[in-house]
Design goal:
Spore Coat Polysaccharide Biosynthesis Protein SpsA, Chain A; 3 domains; 7-stranded mixed β-sheet; 4-stranded mixed β-sheet; elongated; membrane; transmembrane helix
């Protein structure tokens, strides 16, 4: 990688949060960045106690493109500190593929993307298995070259909101969004920025390996939050910080209102929030009593302003949960209401099935009656056709009988002619043929004429 001093503007700034990262994770992550095929990459580390690692000091001395800032200074001086083309938020337990950044950067630059959603692989540290997650969830994005948050908002509020995306630096500065340095704030950062651009792309070639350690609650928590409770691992004894999650959802809500796009997104937003709440509640966390109080307080706070929107937009399962929370004063009341609602819905479902069966039987009977009527009409039609055919046959038979009778009469007359005297006298002519008969008749006539002529002359001579 080219040292930072040899160029004025980095291509990518990687913002690296070193919280809760062991030394072995940290080293693999840094090596994957320093050995990238893409040049001109800088690392912005958020300062905490981990930066005192001896190996980390070695990286500071060897690479000049590594910078360290405390969280407050980075948040308030982001526009001055970062001047790269794109920024990437990375957790130090993960590591990049060798050509991952180069491919993602070139794709973003060539298509002038404000946000590039990157695919990734999951590495299961305990088993050593590698998987390519969420192929089905992101299959719809493969067919889109460039799209807006509005184009895929039905996916946006359901998809895992991990942080492995490239964001154009100038785009983020123009929005004046607060840089997310914790996992939950990355959810609102992704949603809010996605809703403000039509230049979003999808990179289906993995950018990095996301390390998952099933034995580490902190990593499970990370996977749980980044996957937004739609996917991922969740332990029953895991505690969860609801304050940061609720702050994140209020952040999204206020941002959409400020930008004037709340109304066109409220259906997706409220169903997204209460789907997450339901799944958190059903996971049976160790601090479920505290979780109930947080959710109850949230519902109480949004009741006065957003109650009508919630009632009109929430799906039935989310609306039931919302109403149950409002009616409950404790988690035990909620469990009773939830169970009661479940039984009511179950009975309604059975009644619905019975009604559907009855309707089906009624429809089948109606169809059968209609089919019988149609069949009767068709039978009558074919019977009429058969009757018409019989009538025609009878008429033809009568005509045939009459013709036979006429033919017999004709035969009888022919027989009479054949036995007549004239027929016998003209037999010779019939034998020599018509043409010859004419010649013979002409010859005979001529001879008769000649004889008569001679006789007349002789008679006149005698008279003289």
């Amino acid at each position: 990688m080219v040292p930072i001093k040899e160029f004025t503007q980095p291509k990518i700034s990687i913002i690296l949060n070193l919280n809760d990262v062991t030394e072995k994770y940290f080293e693999k992550c840094f090596d994957s960045i320093c050995n990238q095929e893409l040049d001109y990459v800088e690392i912005i580390c958020v300062e905490n106690e981990n930066y005192k690692f001896d190996k980390f000091q070695k990286y500071l001395l060897e690479y000049e493109f590594i910078k360290i800032f405390d969280e407050y200074y980075l948040q308030n001086n982001f526009n001055l500190i970062i001047n790269s083309d794109y920024i990437l938020f990375l957790n130090a337990k993960d590591w990049l593929l060798f050509v991952g950044l180069k491919h993602a950067y070139n794709l973003a630059i060539e298509n002038d993307m404000d946000i590039l959603i990157n695919s990734y692989n999951i590495f299961h540290e305990f088993s050593g298995e590698i998987e390519d997650p969420y192929q089905e969830e992101y299959a719809q994005l493969n067919n889109l070259n460039s799209f807006s948050g509005n184009d895929f908002k039905n996916i946006l509020f359901n998809m895992p909101k991990y942080s492995f995306n490239l964001y154009k630096t100038d785009f983020i500065k123009k929005l004046n969004l607060k840089i997310p340095l914790d996992l939950t704030s990355q959810i609102s950062f992704f949603i809010n920025s996605s809703m403000m651009t039509s230049r979003i792309g999808y990179n289906n070639k993995p950018l990095l390996y996301n390390r998952l350690n099933e034995e580490n609650d902190n990593l499970n928590y990370y996977n749980l939050i980044c996957n937004d409770f739609n996917f991922g691992i969740c332990e029953n004894n895991l505690e969860i910080n609801m304050d940061s999650i609720i702050d994140t959802y209020f952040n999204i809500l206020y941002f959409l209102e400020k930008e004037g796009i709340y109304n066109c997104n409220k259906y997706y937003l409220w169903n997204y929030i209460f789907r997450v709440f339901r799944r958190i509640y059903l996971q049976n966390f160790k601090n479920n009593i505290v979780i109930f109080k947080n959710i109850h307080d949230f519902c109480t706070n949004v009741f006065s302003k957003y109650h009508n929107d919630l009632v009109l937009n929430l799906k039935i399962e989310n609306l039931t949960f919302y109403r149950s929370i409002l009616k409950s004063n404790s988690i035990y009341e909620l469990e009773l209401l939830y169970e009661n609602n479940r039984l009511v819905l179950q009975n309604e479902g059975k009644d619905k099935i019975i009604n559907e069966k009855n309707n089906l039987i009624s429809n089948l009977n109606n169809d059968l009656a209609n089919s019988s009527k149609k069949l009767d009409v068709e039978i009558k039609k074919y019977l009429n056709i058969l009757d018409d055919k019989d009538n025609r046959i009878n008429i033809l038979e009568e005509k045939y009988s009459y013709q036979v009778h006429e033919n017999n009469l004709l035969i009888a007359k022919l027989s009479e002619v054949e036995t007549s005297r004239s027929w016998r006298l003209t037999k010779i002519f019939r034998k020599i043929g018509m043409f010859k008969s004419i010649i013979v008749l002409v010859t005979v006539g001529f001879i008769i004429f000649l004889v008569m002529y001679i006789l007349i002359i002789m008679l006149m001579l005698i008279i003289k």
